[in-house]
Amino acid sequence: QVTAGFDGKTLEVDRLKIRADDESHFEASGDWTVGAQSVKDLAVNGVITRRWVARWLPAELDFTAVKVSGTANGVWPSLAHQGTLTSDDIVFGKLNSSKWKLDWAGVGRRATGTLVGEAGESQLTLEATAEESSLRISALTLKRADDAEMKLVKPAVLDWESGVLLDKLALQGPDSGLTVSLREQGHWHLELTRLEQAWLKDWVTLPGPTWFVESLLVEGKKNGEIWQGRINTRAAVDLGEDRAAQITLEMLLDDEGLQIAKGDISEGELPILKITGTIPLTLKLDSPDENWGFDLEKALDLQITSESNPVFWKQIHETVGVEVRKPVINGTL
User: Fold this and answer.
1) Residue 78's Cα: distance from chain center in Å?
2) CA–CA separation, 29 and 130 (whole Å)
3) What is the pTM of this model?
4) Are the C-beta atoms of residues 32 and 10 closer than 8 Å to each other?
5) pLDDT tens, 45-72?
6) How far is it, in rounded angstroms, from Cα 296 to Cα 240?
7) 171 neighbors 177 (Cβ within 8 angstroms)
8) Is 142 helix (H, G, I), strand (E, B) or coil?
9) Which long-range contacts (CB under 8 A, 24 or more apart) does 176-183 make?
């Protein structure tokens, strides 16, 4: 339903009602002069189900409905606007269902808002200002079920004018920390310190045993089609009965493949697995089908030594489905 007037030049809309079904509707009231891009006392509210907008959304993004309400006054580009978006069951890919609420207020293309997400007993709160080509994040807090928090160290800017660029977003808690940078030429920098599984368990279902990341560094850049960089990590995996396996990896990735400089798994002072060498595996960022490529024409060059540790190999079997019956190995591939 539309209530409007037309004087031959300007279309003035007083009221607009759209109802697609019993669950989906959108209403707007006020004076809306289409040609002049001006509104007076405009108020909107509605419920938008996914099927209304499915054609413009990635297949991995699912939700039942988004509720919207807002007001606006003025003439574009000086139009003042504010509003709220909420959804109670957003699922993206393998992430768990979560609730989200966005409150914003702004003028024209510039707006400041607060985004709050909740999954289980964990919460993410973000405060930011959006402009035509950037998003300035002024506050970001990740809070988990036991009230432990990681907070933004200093404001960070996400710039999409010449590609998605993020200048050092850093979160820090009493013990844990995270730093992310995205720059030109596919340059990534991800650094984690003392990350416990509890930070993620409400947001994503993680298979396998409990783990703890003491440190993780991923950095590099795109060279042609191939991503080149290094991956270093120190982590621990729970074996049960107050036992844990320690994992240390130092790897380089380039057009020659994945080069493992150090790959150690141990339980305390007892070695379980040592692996070094090269796997002809490359990462292609721009590939639409397969990001990882295995070159069958290049040699596989690995040096492997392993020891018997029934509890560890049982965890491997339960996690990835591969049963190692005779784990003692000393050889080269």
Assistant:
1) 33
2) 26
3) 0.84
4) no
5) 999 999 888 899 999 999 999 999 999 9
6) 39
7) yes
8) strand
9) 176/148, 176/150, 177/150, 178/150, 183/221
